[in-house]
């Protein structure tokens, strides 16, 4: 299977890429060389990779930093997800897409755990709001 991974050099990508390789998948790893805020760049990357699956990991992930620059967090986490989903719809419509989110969308540590699929969204930071909005896109 051909798998395109955004945010490939981040925490999750460091674990995912070796596993995908070990399982025999063909990986196209994208990180900062494909700016998810640039719709044309994302479209070109997806069109070139022709993936069967997409794992979207690219994000600004610091809750604390999100308060200092909420616009950047919204651009990367929400608009970046929108660009990935639109590129997949246009260039690889049969691909499966995995959007990686965060428990922060449910209110973080203040929320009782475990959560069910019907748990209400209760984001408490710009980061959590951007991830909740991106989830809704999916």
CA(first)-CA(last) distance: 22 Å
The whole-angstrom Rg is: 15 Å
Low-confidence stretches: none
Element-by-element helix/strand order:
EHEHEHHEH
What is the makeup of the main sheet?
4 strands, parallel
Q: Structural class, from helix and strand content?
A: alpha/beta
Strand order of the largest sheet: 2-1-3-4
Say how many strands there are: 4
The percent range for strand residues is 5-15%
Helix content: 40-55%
Mean pLDDT comes to 95
> Number of helical segments?
5
- Outline type: globular
Oligomeric assembly: single chain
Q: Which helices and strands appear, and what pairs or packs with what?
A:
Blueprint: E1 2-6, H1 11-22, E2 26-29, H2 39-49, E3 53-56, H3 63-68, H4 70-91, E4 96-99, H5 126-137
Parallel strand pairs: 1-2, 1-3, 3-4
Main attributes of the structure:
single chain; 138 residues; alpha/beta; 5 helices; globular
Describe this structure in words.
- The protein is of the alpha/beta class.
- The chain has five helices and four strands; from the N terminus they run βαβαβααβα.
- The chain has helices at residues 11-22, 39-49, 63-68, 70-91, 126-137, and strands spanning 2-6, 26-29, 53-56, 96-99.
- The protein has a four-stranded parallel sheet with strand order 2-1-3-4, with helices on both faces.
- Strand 1 (2-6), helix 1 and strand 2 (26-29) form a beta-alpha-beta unit.
- Helix 2 packs parallel to helix 4 and helix 4 runs parallel beside helix 5.
- The longest helix is centred in the middle third of the chain and has 22 residues, at 70-91.
């Amino acid at each position: 299977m051909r798998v395109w991974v955004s945010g490939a050099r981040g925490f999750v990508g460091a674990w995912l890429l070796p596993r995908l390789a070990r399982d025999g998948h063909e990986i196209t790893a994208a990180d900062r060389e494909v700016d998810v805020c640039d719709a044309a760049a994302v479209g070109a990357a997806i069109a070139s990779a022709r993936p069967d699956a997409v794992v979207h990991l690219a994000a600004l992930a610091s809750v604390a930093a999100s308060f200092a620059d909420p616009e950047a967090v919204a651009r990367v986490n929400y608009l970046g997800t929108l660009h990935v989903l639109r590129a997949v719809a246009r260039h690889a419509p049969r691909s499966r897409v995995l959007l990686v989110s965060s428990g922060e969308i449910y209110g973080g540590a203040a929320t009782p755990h475990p959560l069910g699929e019907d748990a209400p969204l209760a984001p408490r930071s710009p980061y959590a709001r951007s991830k909740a909005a991106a989830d809704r896109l999916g």
